[in-house]
Amino acid sequence: MVQFRAATRADVPAILRLLADDDVSRERDGVAPEGKDERDGVVPEGDDERDGVVPEGEDASYWAAFEAIDADPRNELIVAEEDGAVVGTCQLTFTPSLSRRGAERMTIEAVRVRGDLRGRGVGRAMMLWALARARERGCRLAQLTTDKRRTDAHRFYESLGFVASHVGMKLALET
Amino acid sequence: MVQFRAATRADVPAILRLLADDDVSRERDGVAPEGKDERDGVVPEGDDERDGVVPEGEDASYWAAFEAIDADPRNELIVAEEDGAVVGTCQLTFTPSLSRRGAERMTIEAVRVRGDLRGRGVGRAMMLWALARARERGCRLAQLTTDKRRTDAHRFYESLGFVASHVGMKLALET
Fold first, then answer.
1. pLDDT by residue (tens digit) across A32-84?
2. Which chain A residue is nearest to residue B132, measuring alpha carbons?
3. Which element (helix H / strand E) includes B168?
4. A126 close to A82: Cβ distance less than 8 angstroms
5. Closest partner residue to B145 among A47, A147, A166, by Cβ?
């Protein structure tokens, strides 16, 4: 039985492993993972793949990021837990707006399910949980972006009611 | 000379008019505005068009939304001002993340330029200002979504360095 809850500090290493897991498969294949990695339709969002691994000496920035998310009432880092193990994660951001009669919108980022558990409905259950969370907060819109190449992911999200109405554009910033 | 700054309470009516302006043009044409409305490339993002007008009796929700944005250190409602008039707006959201070595990403929403001023570079100046703001905060990524039909907008954003790598998916939530 998979359960969903807000991540704690203790979950951070497992979450980073989930992020890194995809990183590895991408670097290995040179392209978006295909086949078994997409069975569940829940595949990593394109801009999140990099930097999933904790590099030496940079741990502090990850802990600071966790603390920032944890302290922000409009950001929720979620884990899916089964038999005491973290098997999935996503991040929910609630954005207030003057559009849509002042309601918040929910943006979903960094969706991951552990590689060996894909295809078992964990991703679907996690997205349904996230959408219920959005309704609970009174959001009128949920949104996400997914890499153009991940057609299985598009079908998965469409099966949940998402409409591929937009182009998602990204700009890497040198800092 | 156009200048950019955080919106104040006094700007809210002008911002709502900018949001509503597009609403009207869309309803009139039944499709995304073409021609002169897109000369500047800065056209409204697809999911923001609705509810730009303040309906009777619902003002309170708009003021509450403004207060929520204004009080949130990770949301910035921006106005472009020329000769004392609000001529453009956008909303910037800074999201902390465990990806990308813990850096924030900036999401740009609700981009608008006053209809009679499009094609004069206001939108470009506003986006460059927003990207400078992102760099100042140490963001490693800027992102936005734009309606699939707005091909002029895609070219505009690409000219600023954005890459159309993703599909933007939206799900309207009944509440």
1. 333 333 334 444 444 443 444 554 456 899 999 999 999 999 999 999 999 99
2. A173
3. strand B163-172
4. no
5. A166
